[in-house]
Amino acid sequence: MNIQPDVHRRDYTQIADRLLPGGGLGGYVLPDDVRFTVRSGHGGRLTSTDGREYVDFVCGSGANIIAHDNPAVIDAVKARVGQGMHFFGVMNDAAVEFAEVLVDAIPCAERIIYTTTGSEATSYAMRIARAVTGKQKILKFEGAYHGNQDTAGFSQFPTKASNYPMPSADFGGVPHVLQGTMLVTPYNDLDALESILFEYADDIAAIIVEPVQRIIFPKPGFLKGLRKLADKYGVLLIFDEVVTGFRLSLGGGQEYFGVQPDLACYGKIMGGGLPLGCVAGCSDLIDATNPKRKGQPEYAYVTGNMHGDPIGAVAGLETVRVLNQPGFYEDLHARADRFREAVQSVLNRHDLPAIVVGEASFWQILFADSAPKNVLDVLASDLTRSTSLDLEWLRNDIYVIPSARRFFSSAHTNADEEKALEALDIACSNFE
After folding, report:
1. How many Å apart are CA 308 and CA 332, to the nearest integer?
2. Could you say which of 179, 299, 397, 413 has the lowest number of CB atoms within 10 Å?
3. Of 323, 352, 370, which residue sits at a domain end?
4. What DSSP character marks residue 216?
5. 3-class DSSP assignment, residue 393
6. Three-state DSSP state, 325
7. What's the CA gap between 318 and 272, in Å, rounded?
8. b/e for 313-322, b at 16 or more Cβ within 10 A?
9. H/E element holding 372?
């Protein structure tokens, strides 16, 4: 367990419980017996305030694809901080240089507009679509997460099938009137999608989709069929690449699946894990955000104090340089393939009716017979058992969020993999 004494140790959990809602930083809080507070991250591991070292498969929700502390990224950030950290209302050189790199890397990009987060990016992309088309509704897929804003707060965390195409509100505080601006349909089902488009296309500004919905990969031909239907019915197609962008490939899901959207949304991974995002697309659409067009009906207002932050931009530049090295993705995916196979072997050895799902650098353990094709398949799996197994893994110093997808990074070493497999073996024994 590698517990080291800390002469400066404080009860951070107790302090967090007193000062922060639920003792957490947002939508996730681990159960009390496995909670920990991070002091540092190195490579593919985290060290807690009590000296415990965890192999990290959460990877900053996928953003830390090349390590928590890649030397080139750290050096670039240190150098840039000394030149000033924030300049509002005026362009900075790092943002311009990074924009050149982004437009070159993202297949659909002729221009980009910076954001601070992925949630902002999806919100702005939907705003652009509505402004340009003059239509009000957005069609999303059940169980897809498109940010924390009110307009996306529908059918993100379903417990049963929706009354398609009407979405369900998932949490309080979202104005009920916004429910009428969203439609919902099952992922990986082109027939259901077309039936909704046939009826509502005149009101639909855009379809928004995660190329990989959480851990659910598209069926062969699904995304290409989605592109054809969007064109057939005259609606825009938005890819939410906040997770898939720069992780599946340098060109994200667009390159990996060979399908180009009209707009694409990016978040923290493009800033090397720092708060930076963007919306990318053709000039006609992105130019709807041009501040010189204020007052025009199709103008889409986009602004933020930290948009194009130079610290995030230089971190992103260095991250993309690493990702652009020959063979980076081939090696990452091959190592992830071998790891998934090794995890499955441990599960089989313990006769657990569980499977390892995913591809590229995505993975998750599900107690199911086959890989899910939509969120209802995930709900039909034995999530209670997968959560219990994940908690046993956490107790043995492997950081995963119970019953949530996880990632492999280029920073994970053979020693990290061996530790994870040994911990899984112990977890399976305790679980049985």
Report:
1. 29
2. 413
3. 323
4. B
5. helix
6. coil
7. 8
8. bbbbbbbbeb
9. none
Q: Give dist(CA 44, CA 410) in Å, integer.
A: 8
Backbone angles phi, psi at 83, to 5 degrees: -105, 10
Distance CA(362)–CA(341), nearest Å, equals 13
Q: How many CA atoms lie within 13 A of 26 on its CB side?
A: 4
Confidence band for 109, pLDDT divided at 50, 70 and 90: very high
**Residue 289 shares a structural domain with residue 241:** yes
Model confidence, pTM: 0.95
Same domain as 37, residue 89: no
Q: How many domains is the chain built from? A: 2
pLDDT at 248 over 90: yes
Classify residue 161: in a domain, yes or no: yes
160 and 89 share one domain = yes
Phi, psi (deg, nearest 5) at residue 277: -155, 180
Rounded Cα–Cα distance for residues 209 and 217 (Å): 12
Instruction: Note the pLDDT of residue 5.
Output: 44
What is the domain-level CATH number for residue 86?
Answer: 3.40.640.10
Enumerate the β-bridge partners of residue 406.
363
| pLDDT digit string, tens, across residues 69-106 | 999 999 999 999 999 888 887 899 999 999 999 999 99
Write down which residue in 323, 348, 363 finishes a domain. 323
Q: What is the pLDDT of residue 3?
A: 47
Other beta carbons within 10 angstroms of residue 297's beta carbon come to 7
Percent of the chain with pLDDT over 70: 98
120 plus 217 within the same structural domain: yes
pLDDT of 218 higher than 60: yes
Domain assignment present for residue 4? The answer is: no
- CATH value at residue 38: 3.90.1150.10
Q: Give the β-pairing of 355-357 and 362-366.
A: antiparallel
**Would you list the DSSP string of 22-46?**
GGSSSS----GGG---EEEEETTEE
Domain that holds residue 345: 12-60+327-431
pLDDT computed for residue 152 by the predictor: 84
Minimal CA–CA distance to 200: which of 184, 220, 223? 184
Q: Contact at 8 Å (CB) between 189 and 120?
A: no
* DSSP H or E segment with residue 376: helix 375-380
Whether the upstream peptide bond of residue 175 has omega within 30° of 0, thus cis, is: no
Q: Is 32 left (phi over 0), alpha (psi -120 to 50) or beta?
A: alpha
Q: In what order do the strands lie in the sheet with 406-407?
A: 355-357, 362-366, 406-407
Q: Considering only CA atoms, which of 213, 210, 318, 223 is closest in space to residue 266?
A: 210
